[in-house]
Amino acid sequence: MTTSESTQKPIEQSHKRVYLHAMPVRIWHWANALGFLVLILTGFQIRYVDLFSLMSFETAVHLHDWVGFAVIANWFLWFFYYITSDKITNYHADLDAPNFFKRYFDQAQYYSHGIFKGEKRPHDVNPNDKFNPMQKLTYQFVMFITAPITFLTGLMMWDVQRFQGLIDVVGGIRVVNTVHVIMFILFVFFIFLHAYMGVLGPKPSSHYKEMFTGWEEPHE
Amino acid sequence: MKTGTTFGTLLLAIALLGMAPAVSMADHHEEVSNPDIKCLKCHSKNLRKKLEDGEKMSLRIEVEAFETSVHRVIGCTGCHRDVAKGKHPSKQPIASQRAYSLKHNQTCSQCHEAAYDTYKGSVHASMVEDGDAGAPVCSDCHSAHAIQPRTVYEPVNGEPCSTCHTEINDAFAQSVHGLARTEGNLIRGEHVTAPSCAGCHNAHDISAVTDTEYLVPKCISCHEVAQLAHEQWLPNAAMHLKSVGCAACHSPQAELRVDLQLYDQLKQAPVRQNESNSTVQETLAAIDTNGDGLDPVELWKLVRQINDQEQASDVTLLGRLEVTNSIDAHRLAASTEAVRSCESCHSKNAEPFQNVTVSLSRKDGRKESFKADPKVLNSAMSVESVGSFYAPGGTRIKLLDGLLVLALLGGLAVPVVHIGLGKILRKKLESDKK
What we know:
Number of strands of chain B: 9
Largest sheet of chain A: none
Number of domains of chain A: 1
Radius of gyration of chain B: 33 Å
Oligomer: heterodimer
Helix content of chain B: 40-55%
CATH topology of chain A: Fumarate Reductase Cytochrome B subunit
Number of helices of chain A: 8
CATH superfamily of chain A: Transmembrane di-heme cytochromes, Chain C
Order of helices and strands of chain B: HHEEHHHHHHHHHEEHHHHHEEHHEHEEHH
Shape of chain A: globular
Radius of gyration of chain A: 20 Å
Largest interface: A-B, 41 and 42 residues
Helix content of chain A: 55-70%
Order of helices and strands of chain A: HHHHHHHH
Largest sheet of chain B: 5 strands, mixed
Distance between the termini of chain B: 166 Å
């Protein structure tokens, strides 16, 4: 189906509710969201102690460390949940690259103007394929690249002495910090985008509700 | 006969008169050995010898001092062996007083071989070797003839070190260590053994305290619980103890700097200045042509070029926060007064990061420092060259600040643009319908 054909389809009038987000995923998501917010705030405080004074540098470092460990542990819970369930298909790479990127651009077109014209979503969700191509690529990048790199560089800075060998291999603590901060910058951008994309459901509150109830909200 | 008797009496009288000073000396200084009386007969007087450099050297020996010297038992010829051979060296020319001291520096090693060997590895000996006319030889610390027992070198007044290191000694006297020594080795009512100069710097093997690996372990050798105490509250305590000198926090009034020491990671040792790597200085001079201190690009070039020139080396810059001058380093305060505020370093424009040097280690461990632009700590160019030093907040890279601002603006712009785009499209759709 071409994009022009899809845009000419009538608006979906009824929608069968789908249980998209299982309880463990929802708990993980909100714990992760809270953790990331605290990490971003304390990260800002650590880096810009001359600009912000939400808390002392010392408190910010300790809080950043402890919450960092909690978020790492949470990542492993997420990982083991998905790896041991059939839901891992949500994160499977699409090996048909041309088809994937066609759907990717269909989704981009939908977000850029289709959504405002009331066009049908190009991607139909189900519990084993709940991410559209843009989401899938983003979450694969965030969960399998950005997050682990952030965790690893964070661990290296948490105890420089313990990880000195690894730090030397990658070029020194300044390299480690630079990579950590670049990941931090990406996460800051991601959080803004993620929060905004959350309001692009059938109603602005739909996707937020879904992350609490687990059930997909009806589409008009 | 009468004439003969009178003549004999006169001769005796003259002989006795001639012996008078010696007898008198023997009476008063019973400890001085008999052969030494002969020496002191002349050398207790204000004898002076003209040296080749035109100066005059006093040959007078303070008898009282010599009498209390531990060397009185070996006597004059114990050290002045050229005299023992029956050849008084009065006619031998002496180039200068310094040359004479240097010659007799070897003499001490004849008995004090172990001490002399450790001295040979010291900063003082290295300075002597480099021709520093002010560098101390044995007699500068121990004196030539009033050599005192070891117990005398545990003084409150800092002698003999204070003779040269006067300002440092004054600072030390007011420090927690110095005050403890003058107050009966008491700190807050607790009995302690506060160190004298040699307690930290050793007596003969006097090391360069700027040597990265030297000072912190020295402090911890007495303050055994310091590491544990720091770990109780200081994140990355081990790393802080490695890259921040103790005095940087424990001498709270001290002016601080960041020293970036050229360090060979393959050899696990600072790059030492020697004849083979004199090119380091030439490279530095060629890079920093205007002599205004190394900027980030120049520093990057320096590290690159040294690595290109030196085979089998992996030279980087080892950053260390330390006090700027050695006087401040001795103004150690009580631990309750130590800097504990993280913000004093971990914030932009923190004082320690406004003064940056790049240093090369001399063969004796002392550093030869070159000025660097403080921007080297905040530049993206330094990610490679200053890879081993980073203080979160304090030495943050400006380029990353710019990227973060872009991320924030971008994060805000996406919703704004998207919502705006939606409004425009909806208006267009409505107008198309009409």
